[in-house]
Design goal:
The structure is a single chain. By secondary structure, the protein is α/β, with parallel strands linked by helices. The chain is built from 17 helices and 20 strands. The strands form five sheets. The protein has a seven-stranded mixed β-sheet with strand order 3-2-1-4-20-19-18, covered by helices on one side. It has a six-stranded parallel β-sheet with strand order 6-14-7-8-10-9. Helix 1 packs parallel to helix 14, helix 6 crosses helix 7 and helix 11 packs across helix 12. The two termini are 31 Å apart. The relative contact order is 0.17. The structure holds flavin-adenine dinucleotide. The site of flavin-adenine dinucleotide (FAD) has 38 residues, from helix 1, strand 2, helix 2, helix 7 and helix 13. Flavin-adenine dinucleotide (FAD) binds next to helix 1, strand 2, helix 2, helix 7 and helix 13.
Length: 499
């Protein structure tokens, strides 16, 4: 058998699957750490990273999860784009692992493969009535307002009373977008025309947010709470009793800085809500409020009630939560009339073909980012790694994908430095003495030839730059920073994909 190895250019070959923040940060950190440590580790300092992304555009949930009215977070996409603008990182967007390429294709061509496939689906809501018309998973709604390439383009917003279930930031995002004024969003964000037109028809007037546990156990960030406070035309309503915390709960909450800050902000919201009521049902600026945002802590949704297959109400059970976070149901029930229910109870990382899945923790089976043969008692699969939400499960902000990346890259470099080609069946005797050079087909064009032979239309970084420029121009024409293109075909056309 012949190898395409070029002895003059013994760079490491790394495949990264998923161009969300985890994949992009890991690519960058890998190159930097290799430059810093590679010589001492005997690995050399050169590497080529091929980054495969199933969508025609990079950035994962930064583009298709973060709410449009978080422009400062959306700017992270610009920072990620700068990282991609590196001759050692090659973007292959519109290439889906498991469909367009497989593990069998990658193992001979790459020394290590890193899965950064993130999450896109909702965890299911397992209560009676969850399949009624008018019950939506947050992920689908987020896909709609963020213009995910394969999302529904129409969204029915005809409910005047709406429930949102969830005690975290995604629930907050969904509630805020349901209460935001369409014109505000059009002016200040990158939403597309179909989303603006859909929001113009939004009839939501009362929104109930149901959080199973108490004020001290929610998982909101202070920034999200401050945004909630400043919704024009919206009166915030809380239940005073929810703020009656015992000393032990206050003590426990005070020990964690983020929880303490969140609880303090929630108490500020309670005061604000009192002022809004005293002012004659007004919003934060004292203007008449035509919408109500009712926050129910200690309220566990137990059933969604329907009529003729359509949601008409939600039934919740009151709970109490002790200082250690243990929740107890009280047997007291309340019903609220609603015509739509959105559940934001967590995302579920995608399964990846050929890689074991840990269903109980909802992540790719791994130990410190090293992929395992199975979730229970599995052993490490050499050369395969996971990072970001695929590794850790769907919790944590964009920043934490950077710390994940550092840890995984350390593990990868350590393993590569320890490995010699002879350890693996795929290795050929002709490979040089440098450790880590485990792939046998080292022709950088090989993957492109393979994709071309399968008729896969690739969007590269230049293609993304064309999409980026196009969206900025679309926005400028309307005095906005950007307007998103949502159609997959249009994205491909703008990228001028050849083939
Ligand atoms: C609704 C929502 C709002 C959020 N808002 C914020 C916020 O305001 N601030 C904040 O800091 N964090 C926010 N987060 C969290 C943040 O988005 C995550 O921490 C981060 O995106 C996780 O990064 P990741 O790269 O692991 O996953 P992802 O961002 O999901 O990226 C994974 C990438 O892999 C690709 N992929 C998946 N499968 C394949 C395959 N088979 N082949 C090729 N490519 C594949 C996907 O298309 C995607 O591009 C939010 C999350 C959600 C869900």
């Amino acid at each position: 058998m012949e190898t395409n190895y070029n002895a003059d250019s013994p760079e490491l070959r790394i495949a990264v699957i998923g161009a969300g923040p985890a994949g992009i940060y890991s690519s960058d950190i890998f190159l930097r750490q290799l430059k810093k440590l590679g010589d001492d580790m005997g690995l050399g300092t050169a590497a080529r990273i091929d980054l495969f992304e199933k969508l025609p555009v990079p950035f994962g949930l930064v583009r298709y999860g973060v709410a449009p009215d978080h422009p400062s977070i959306k700017f992270i996409a610009d920072a990620l784009a700068k990282t991609l603008d590196n001759p050692d990182i090659h973007l292959y967007a519109n290439v889906e692992f498991g469909k367009d390429i497989t593990l069998e294709d990658l193992l001979p061509r790459y020394d290590a493969i890193l899965f950064a496939t993130g999450a896109i689906e909702d965890k299911p809501l397992n209560i009676p009535g969850a399949s009624l018309r008018g019950v939506y998973g947050a992920a689908k709604f987020v896909e709609w307002y963020d213009g995910y390439p394969t999302a529904e383009r129409e969204w029915l917003l005809d409910a005047s009373e709406v429930a949102v279930i969830g005690g975290g930031n995604v629930a907050m995002d969904v509630a805020r977008e349901l209460l935001r004024d369409a014109d505000y969003l059009r002016e200040h964000t990158d939403i597309s025309d179909n989303v603006y037109n859909g929001l113009l028809k939004n009839r939501a007037q009362t929104l109930h947010l149901f959080i199973r546990r108490g004020v001290a156990q929610a998982k909101f960030s202070v920034q999200e709470l401050r945004e909630m406070e400043k919704l024009s035309g919206v009166q915030i309503v809380v239940n005073e009793n929810d703020f009656d915390l015992d000393d032990e709960t206050i003590d426990v909450a005070g020990k964690d800085k983020l929880t303490r800050q969140m609880v303090e902000e929630l108490f500020a919201i309670r005061d604000l809500s009192e002022d809004m009521q005293d002012g004659g049902n007004v919003d934060f600026e004292g203007n008449p409020a035509n919408k109500r945002y009712v926050i129910h802590f200690n309220a566990n949704p137990v059933e969604i009630l329907g009529k003729d297959g359509q949601v008409v109400a939600i039934r919740v059970e009151r709970t109490v939560t002790s200082a250690d976070g243990k929740m107890t149901c009280t047997g007291e029930f309340e019903e609220y009339p609603v015509q739509a229910v959105y559940h934001a109870i967590g995302y579920k990382p995608a399964q990846v073909s050929g890689v074991a899945y840990d269903s109980s923790n909802a992540l790719l089976a791994n130990s410190d980012g090293r992929i395992l043969t199975s979730a229970q008692n599995g052993v490490v699969c050499p050369r395969l790694y996971a990072t970001g939400w695929a590794k850790r499960g769907p919790v944590g902000l964009i920043g934490s994908t950077k710390s994940d990346a550092l840890q995984i890259v350390e593990n990868m470099l350590e393993d590569l430095a320890k490995s010699s080609a002879k350890e693996y069946e795929t290795a050929l005797p002709a490979l040089p003495a440098l450790p880590g050079r485990l792939a046998t087909d080292r022709d950088p064009k090989s993957i492109e030839n393979l994709l071309a032979s399968r008729g896969v239309k690739v969007v590269d970084f230049e293609g993304w730059k064309r999409i980026d420029a196009f969206e900025i121009e679309l926005g400028l024409a309307e005095n906005r920073a950007r307007k998103k293109v949502v159609s997959k075909q249009m994205l491909m056309d703008i990228a001028e994909v050849k083939q």
